[in-house]
Amino acid sequence: MTQCCLLAGLASLLLVGCASKTERQFVSGCKTSGVDSDICECVYDKLESKYGEDGLKNNMYTLQPTDAFQRDTMNTTIQCMKE
């Protein structure tokens, strides 16, 4: 159930997408799924550190992000919620 909710949140992130425009849209989409803005910013920062902005954009603006990206997004969200 939790994975479904996180995947739904990820799907809404994919529909929006650099304070880059990319970051603003990522955080906005994340907040739309009911997550606190501090957590959304934490997730963005950690994913951007791992993938770089171009890698993050490539995974956000595709209909099928990689399994690794989806897994990283879920794990990063959980990590940021614990911080």
Give an account of the 3D structure:
This protein has helices at 2-15, 21-32, 37-60, 67-82. It has one domain (2-82). It is an all-alpha fold and 83 residues long.
Largest sheet: none
Counting structural domains, the number is: 1
- Pick out the low-confidence regions: 14-18
Order of SSEs: HHHH
Q: How many H/I helices?
A: 4
Mean of the pLDDT scores?
82
CA gyration radius, whole angstroms? 11 Å
Strand content: under 5%
Q: Quick one: overall form?
A: globular
Structural class: mainly alpha
CA-to-CA gap between the ends?
22 Å
Number of strands: 0
> How much helicity do the residues have?
over 70%
Summarize the structure.
The chain is an all-alpha fold. The chain has helices at about 1-15, 20-30, 35-60, 65-80.
Question: Keywords, please?
Answer:
single chain, 83 residues, mainly alpha, 0% strand
Topology at a glance:
Layout: H1 2-15, H2 21-32, H3 37-60, H4 67-82
Helix pairs in contact: 1-2, 1-4, 2-3, 3-4
